[in-house]
Design brief:
The structure is a homotetramer of 339-residue chains. Chain A is an alpha/beta fold and 339 residues long. Chain A is built from ten helices and 14 strands. In chain A, the strands form three sheets. An eight-stranded parallel barrel of chain A has the order 7-8-9-10-11-12-13-14, surrounded by five helices. In chain A, strands 2-3-1-4 form a four-stranded antiparallel sheet, with helices on one face. At the A-B interface, α7, α9 and α10 of A face α7, α9 and α10 of B.
């Protein structure tokens, strides 16, 4: 159930409602919107004695209503105007399209600084780079790990861009959270519930990628694992699903974008680099993502894609990325956004 | 192999090359482009004695080159500038985005005329409507058949729009071709090779939909069945593939759009109505399709979707379609197209 | 609705019920079981005036009950003991596992006679061979067509095996039905409703293959197209579905076998040759199919697979087929069947 | 590369080869087979100076050969006779079919002891039960955790069955390994490489489930993560993949069984309970799995499935499980195995 407070409800009204909800053995999550506050009540509904319906008569309460979806805290109903998540001072989810760019993996100081210069110059808002790399084979390059985190942090700081990097092991959360501005959960860990819970106990923003075979409802339930532990700062990322088609590495599912925007208040970004696996498809699919309503993009850019240690065929050159940013501007404006 | 003629090659040069190709037991398809003519040679390559390479020294020939793809006549290599297909005076494939709209099924004179008025008023270029309906169940409404064809033809003529309708049975080709401007092959017949061959023997334009589990290369091979019989007027339609996702009826695969534009010279249109199955997703996915490079759209519009005999949940009202057309204009312009 | 007749109901009782059902604007299909007869009533239910419920009081009627599935004539409810389909004197669906074997395509008199000798010697009950071949590419070998039909017929007759061959075009039904004992509908035509309807108007048994992305319910609806036109002789064939897995040509879905046996009275056979695309998997998956409850197998056998004009990698040699038949015997007996 | 030792090679010969391999900067894994020993050399091949080929002339070496697959330690080539993994004194991978049975989740002492009695009485060899449950929703029952582990251990000990339970978090490995005989990695963690690596550093046997969209090659690469860290005790479990089919919970992919048996020496078990999600399909698919060559089965059995806290529809009653075991015996014998 969610309890919608009146627009003029006082902090004392809200605290009172929370106390009453907890007395009935539910957990209360207070979600503060621009217009009004919502108290989401999580827990099993156990018949009359625990009914929340009578709270409609309590001071400051406008309405008590059931959440129809299986996901509760992620549901659009609890924050109809949508969430804006702040990452190192950069907003994701507002009118501006947020572009996160950088190499697939941090490979060396030279490479990551080259990438940082390039993406900053082209107008990116955040920088990405992998230090811990989930690779299908244990014999492939696994990332520079701790050293990579430091190189990425310095490269971002040098050009003034907050940084995003992947976390694969709950054990590394403290280190990674200290040296980066946003933690990414990759597709292979999309239903690693132990990791999701651990990330729910920090406050750093989380970039949660959809799994290769995760249905949209399951994707929102994965987000719910983070939200229900107390971290409200979740950004969703569509990155392609696995289908029978072999011409592309994955099938970027842009249908997910308008559907997620209908179902959840969380911001939605799109990764056309992994989603297609082919650099020549990155720009058209990036434009399509924005036209479909995405709040941002995740683009792989490498100073020299042919020399990349991973995912070379899908990384853009600095010149191609600059062209993408130029092409993006009129499309964003055509759908009432800006960049 | 394809033989690229010089830009100033004469009709006599071309006829001479065709004669030589056929003497070597290949079938020759002459593909007349804006800049130059290409002679595509189809048949098994059978060693030295049948080699086409020596034709490079023949008058008017610029180059003899292998076609690398398994599809040959559909390959972009044979017509790098892209094809423009004319349907009742309307071009598909040029700078203008072509919008084909109308009800899923022709249900009555009143309904089809209402739809015709609505889509014409909103700026559609072609009208669609199904008279023969492929339905999963034999007990569902199967379409008005012959009578539906006539109603559609009249409704289109009344408002000055050429009409597109589905063909399910080679037996009906003559009738349907006489009363419509373009014949659609549905997803379930995407690899009905007997039907494709029969459609290759007429000259009416064909709207070929991708099958639910057809890979992009197989899709182009299906087009090749029509092309190789002699009908060059094929427009491809992405309409969603079947995946594990159940939130949408199909997974509209927009990745196919830029990939097809790379691989083939045939125009590519997108059907977000079947592709998503949800009316609220039709407009964002239509905008995304155009941003991704589609040459046109196929949109289901019904005067009263709630009363529709088939596919109600995915058909737009006239008002929503009008809004879609308005939203489309700036996006088309943002990617250098118009509507 | 289905009307279950009493076990001692007379032909006159049944005729009377049929007349009453048709007077209410339904089509009546009489299904004669071993124990009792069922009258299936097909048509839209249109309220009180057309209610069939009152027939419970008519002579010879035991019960009037709704069919819960969307498929009606194919439903197990109308013939709980299961159907046995006769093909040229060979039964499919009884206690014996029926093995249909032969080459992917008829290639020459020598090849088809060699295959006939081999499969007969190893104990096959029916012979298969394709004369019309649905090939992804129009430039691949398309089969020997009419000549192939004749070669197959003669080869079967020589060794005393009824023959099964694929039909792709309604136009060829008369010819193919005259020269073969069972007509196969391939996966690509699994929802070619025009072809299915045409096959419903003959009485020759039909071997209906599941489409590459056909759900089990849709598969039964495709069978329903044939049944509802009046041809009750349908055998279903699981032949692999399309998934993300690329190690096998298709994913043979054996789950479909026990599920189909629960849902329908029609016999179910399995094609592990197309289902896996790898000869080394054919025998284990054939054994698994029988263990799962299949009524028969469709096995590709070629006198010399390396020289095959199509699907070489999945065809068994005569020696491997003989070994398969030997391995099959104890597995069939282990599940209470014989071979 | 793998170095196949002569059958009479001495321990000193082997130690010498290992030393030479490591001197060339490879990691050496000694794999001791019944007939002979193989030294698998893992690491990048870096040209002439690091070539292993010259080791063919070293004492005790029979042959130096490349491993053709991307997976190395899991490859059948390194142990052609197959591996047998011991779990609490019970062998998996030998001539006997190993049956692992028990409830989806440990729910109470009463329930787990009832299940233990039932599966022991019916002839199961190992007991399973989940204490840490990966659930799609954070609001669903998450398992009894530590307490569940203890209840399972006691229930198994009481009836003399080693126990298998799922591990979701590397943090719990020590606790779970102490109180159970085999640790299961669930489908959602199939590519949780941090967890796989951690499990590679213990010696307890691991039951590795295939992910919902994991290709067979990727599945073996996941096993390789465990093997390459030093834990050779890995059993693979096919448990259904995600496809477009909605009639079953997953599509149990039995094709994987003979393919895995060809490609790897690791034992392969099958879970028809999760693989189909329908109790009525569990027995036929269990029989099919054994006919296809599986080394064992994982069957969910609950004293009272209707009262189960998770996965009720797919759990067998004790009576059904007893019937399954009886049906299994003749099928196992038909393929040269026993139970």
């Amino acid at each position: 159930m969610i309890i919608v407070m009146k627009s003029h409800a006082s902090p004392a009204d809200i605290a009172n409602v929370v106390r009453m909800v907890e007395a009935l053995d539910y957990r209360a999550h207070v979600i503060t919107g621009v217009e009004r506050t919502v108290v989401a009540c999580v827990g099993e509904e156990r018949g009359e004695a625990h009914s929340l319906t009578h709270l409609e008569s309590v001071a400051g309460v406008e309405r008590v209503m059931p959440v129809l979806r299986t996901f509760k805290l992620a549901s659009r109903e609890v924050r109809p105007e949508g969430s804006i998540i702040e990452v190192g001072g950069v907003a994701i989810g507002g009118p501006r399209i947020t572009v996160i760019a950088g190499p697939c993996a941090v490979e060396s100081r030279l490479q990551v600084e080259g990438a940082a210069d390039a993406v900053k110059a082209a107008g990116a808002h955040l920088m990405r780079g992998g230090a811990y790399k989930p690779r299908t084979s244990p014999y492939s390059f696994q990332g520079m790990e701790g050293e990579g985190i430091t190189l990425l942090e310095h490269a971002g700081r040098r050009v003034g861009l907050p940084v995003v990097t992947e976390i694969m092991d709950a054990h590394d959360i403290e280190l990674v959270a200290e040296h980066s501005d946003m933690l990414q959960v990759g597709a292979r860990n999309a239903q690693n519930f132990a990791l999701l819970r651990a990330l729910g106990r920090i406050r750093k923003p989380i970039l949660l990628k959809r799994g290769m075979s995760t249905r949209i409802e399951e994707f929102l339930m994965a987000a719910e694992y983070i939200l229900s532990e107390g971290n409200p700062n979740v950004v969703l990322c569509e990155r392609g699903i696995r289908t029978f088609e072999t011409a592309t590495r994955n099938t970027l599912d842009l249908n997910a974008v308008p559907l997620l925007k209908e179902w959840t208040h969380l911001p939605v970004v799109v990764d056309p680099s992994h989603g297609t696996g082919l650099w020549s498809l990155v720009t058209p699919m990036a434009l399509a993502a924005v036209a479909a309503g995405a709040d941002g993009l995740l683009i792989e850019v490498h100073p020299d894609p042919r020399a990349a240690l991973s995912d070379g065929p899908q990384q853009l050159t600095p010149a191609s990325f600059k062209a993408l940013m130029a092409a993006l501007k009129p499309v964003a404006e055509a759908v009432g956004r800006r960049i």
